[in-house]
Design goal:
With 480 residues, this protein is α/β, with parallel strands linked by helices. It contains 19 helices and 14 strands. The chain has helices at residues 22-33, 45-52, 63-73, 82-88, 109-122, 141-154, 175-180, 192-202, 214-244, 249-257, 278-291, 297-318, 348-357, 370-378, 382-387, 394-398, 411-415, 418-423, 438-443, and strands spanning 15-18, 38-41, 76-78, 91-94, 129-133, 161-165, 185-188, 209-212, 328-332, 361-365, 388-390, 403-406, 428-431, 447-450. Strands 3-2-1-4-5-6 form a six-stranded parallel beta sheet, with helices on both faces. A six-stranded parallel beta sheet has the order 11-10-9-12-13-14. The chain has a two-stranded parallel sheet with strand order 7-8. Helix 5 (109-122) packs parallel to helix 6, helix 9 (214-244) crosses helix 11 (278-291) and helix 11 (278-291) packs antiparallel against helix 12. The longest helix is centred in the middle third of the chain and has 31 residues, at 214-244. It is elongated. The chain starts with 14 loop residues before the first strand and ends in a 30-residue tail after the last strand. Bound molecules: uridine-5'-diphosphate-xylopyranose.
Length: 480
């Protein structure tokens, strides 16, 4: 039976979504759930077939179920050509990749090619169409790149085709919730008709609509991601200092984050941020500003600070291993965070490279990311491949390990049955996320070493940097 929509109201404009990647598909399915008639298109025939059959091609919480119900309801359809999509949709979103180039700039070729192909399809369409760029692009792209490309390829003027910008703020693992119930919607428009169309599209969403210029909307997306990355890096720096002087970063964040001007979110110290967006976007933001003669000194430092934090995480692990040859580490969680199999920019990769490069045997496990990790490993040098093994179960990965590294805190790791401890050579968990329950560590006979928590290590005198060696850390008292 078709699922009911989230909201009922006047008929919204029809929508087309070009590019059914994570973001395009989540957005398309969310529009459909809000009662919008949506046509999707992807250049990959197998992806079109998967979505048309009511499945998601990606591992993303709740997305498969949402796609299935919206395909069944008939509100979400998949077209085999852009012409069909252009014919059926008043507002057409471009959700195409903007991969990073070695210079830090983004590669605009996919989005330019998509705009051109769409423009050609629009040439044969009657009636007004609004093309909206959802991909993350540097300020000015919609107006200076996409608008002229669409106008030229379609041969249509502003009375028939307009271009707008509407960045998304979806985080992996929460995409469905974020797409269905965004905390705000930012649209960048340059004419009242486009604004009106986007207002009626988003009327069913219970979120404030912020209307700015196209470049303003594009800038907003970069500012948001750069600021979030900056917040994490700031917390990571305070956490390194806290660790050194016997302080727990979580206590500090509770104290300063509860100031409403600061806020506690995105201040969780860890091995550094990963994922497909943050480092790519910060680099592109810095580069785009530089191209305009503006220096973003804070943002310039964010990626360097992140890399330093990752080196620190590796150092913390190293400090728990026996010296000499033969050290073994169980590496738990390989993706850039839990709840996903996405390895892009995952901090697990440089950490594994670094410690395995020093001769440590790494026994890797992840509940869902092992296939992607094996693929990554197969392209690494033979020496590294020889030192890294992958295991289908946590128990196997732990066998004979001198320490278990918790990089992504999946619930199954946190459940830690006592039998796992017995498999290890040394019962030590290096918790890079400070997620492992202290009481459980005690119960399972585990010594817990938490990144950013100086109280889980031997307290150091303020004046003397600690020189920790294996076995020096005292267990933390039970508490969280
Ligand atoms: C991010 C933004 O959150 C999202 O709004 C944007 O659209 C895309 O980029 P995503 O990359 O999916 O989303 O993941 P996110 O949950 O933001 O985490 C990014 C990285 O930062 C992860 O490696 C995560 O573990 C890390 N992180 C996050 C921290 O280390 N500390 C925090 O407090 C928050």
């Amino acid at each position: 039976m078709p699922r009911k929509t989230e909201n009922v109201g006047p008929r919204p404009p029809t929508v087309g979504v070009v590019g059914l990647g994570y973001m395009g598909l989540a957005s398309a399915a969310a529009f459909a759930r809000h009662g919008v008639s949506v046509t999707g298109y992807d250049v990959l025939p197998e992806r079109r077939a998967t979505v048309r059959s009511g499945s998601s091609p990606f591992h993303e919480e709740g997305l498969g179920e949402l796609v299935r119900s919206e395909i069944q309801s008939g509100r979400l359809r998949v077209a085999d050509t852009l012409a069909e999509l252009a014919d059926q949709s008043t507002i057409i979103f471009l959700c195409l990749p903007t991969p990073p180039l070695p210079t830090g700039r983004i590669d605009l070729r996919p989005i330019r090619a998509g705009a051109e192909e769409l423009g050609r399809a629009l040439a044969r369409v009657n009636g007004f169409r609004l093309v909206v760029i959802k991909s993350t692009v540097v300020p000015g792209t919609a107006q200076t790149v996409n608008a002229p490309v669409v106008a030229k390829a379609s041969g249509k003027g502003p009375a028939q085709v307009a271009v707008a910008s509407n960045p998304e703020f979806l985080a992996e693992g929460r995409m469905v919730a974020d797409a269905l119930r965004p905390d705000r919607i930012v649209v960048g428009v340059s004419d009242p008709r486009s604004e009106q169309l986007l207002r009626s599209l988003y009327a069913a969403f219970d979120a404030p609509l912020i209307v700015v210029t196209p470049a303003g909307a594009e800038m907003t997306k970069y500012a948001a991601n750069s600021f979030l990355a900056l917040k994490i890096s700031f917390a990571n720096e305070v956490s390194r200092f806290s660790e050194r002087v016997g302080v727990d970063i979580d206590d500090v964040v509770r104290g300063f984050g509860s100031d409403p001007r600061i806020g506690e979110q995105f201040l969780k110290a860890g091995p550094g941020f990963g994922g497909s967006c943050f480092s790519k976007d910060v680099r592109a933001f810095v580069r785009a500003a530089k191209d305009q003669g503006v220096r973003l000194r804070l943002s310039e430092q964010v990626v360097a600070a992140n890399d330093e934090q990752t080196r620190h995480a590796a150092e913390l692990i190293r400090g728990e291993l026996p010296r000499g040859r033969g050290a073994k580490v169980a590496f738990l969680g390989l993706a850039f965070k839990e709840g996903t199999d996405d390895l892009r920019e995952s901090r697990a990769l440089p950490i594994v490279r670094e410690i395995a490069g020093e001769g440590v045997a790494v026994r890797a496990h992840d509940p869902v990311a092992l296939p992607k990790f094996r693929d990554w490993l197969s392209k690494e040098p033979a020496g590294l491949q020889a030192r890294v093994s992958t295991w289908a179960t946590t128990a196997e990965a732990l066998t004979g390990a001198d320490a278990a590294v918790l990089q992504a805190p999946w619930p199954e790791y946190l459940a830690w049955p006592k039998a796992w401890t017995a498999r290890m050579r040394q019962p030590v968990i290096v918790d890079l996320r400070r997620a492992f329950p202290t009481a459980r560590a005690h119960a399972a006979g585990i010594r817990l070493v938490r990144l950013g928590d100086g109280t889980s290590m031997r307290p150091a005198a303020l004046s003397t940097p600690p020189t920790r060696s294996p076995g020096q850390n005292a267990p933390r008292s039970a508490g969280n």
